[in-house]
Amino acid sequence: MKVVIGVLTYKRPDGLKRLLAGLELLTFDKTPAPDVQVLVIDNDPEAGAQDYCLRRQESYRWRLIYCHEPRRGISHARNRALMLSLGEYDGIAFIDDDEEPAPDWLDQLLFVQREYEADVVTGPVLPRLEEPAPAWSKTGGFYERSRHPTGYRMELARTGNVLILTRLLENPENRFDPRYGLSGGEDTHFFLRIRQQGHQIVWADDALVYEWVPASRIKPGWLLQRAYRSGNTYALCERDFRLPAHRLLLRAVKGVTRIGWGLLLLLPSILLGPVRLIRSLQQICIGAGMVMGLAGSRYEEYEETHGV
Prior knowledge:
Blueprint: E1 2-9, H1 13-23, E2 35-42, H2 50-56, E3 63-68, H3 74-85, E4 91-96, E5 99-101, H4 105-116, E6 120-122, E7 125-129, H5 135-139, E8 153-154, E9 162-165, H6 186-196, E10 201-203, E11 209-213, H7 220-240, H8 245-272, H9 274-294
Parallel strand pairs: 1-2, 1-4, 2-3, 6-10, 7-11
Antiparallel strand pairs: 4-9, 5-11, 6-9, 8-10
Helix pairs in contact: 6-7, 7-9, 8-9
């Protein structure tokens, strides 16, 4: 099997070096070792990663390909990776430049794909918080994501840890929407379409990826911004897929309910400490993002930096 690992990067030289080093340590025990190639898509207009990647090419364990995508927005970078993999590879695995894979990461993705004959396989992204991290950030589990048993059928996947069979890309509609390039949520939009077409997305619980969370994100303000954006982009995605009016109305009701529930718990949460307070504020922000998204308002979280 020929697999390309799509690495999107934007002005994270240390993260990119750590990730490329981690990819050199990949092992294969459950599946035959594939033909692996690593494709770095640099979304920095100044092509900041070019020199490092070109220096690493000769000695790198896998074939290392560098491509500069100067158009702003993560959707353009992801689509460039898709186009370069179409026709030459059997699958494309995405991982981000603030992440690091377990040595058997790709082996586990390929094993689950084979076992379940899945079109898409996704797995856990586990946080590694930059120290010293405040106590509330750990006890609250704000950076943890839900996990499932291997083989669980998913409605969505995240591009920080995913394997996509390239046969899905033969449909020209299966691309990342540029409208979500600076707002995020391009993966939600992409995989909603994939599921709508009847393709299977399967969970691989042992395909581990670790995400390095910098101090700039270990703040209540960042969590609330991300909560608003998540609610906003999900509602926008639902609008795009022309759901029946009653489904959109239900989403609006859920958004308003989240706002009301968060406001109701706000005062007691203040007395119960920062974890409860942040959770209440997150509910308000998610609900507000949903309502504004249904109204057509798009929050572009990455307008300034477009880093993910």
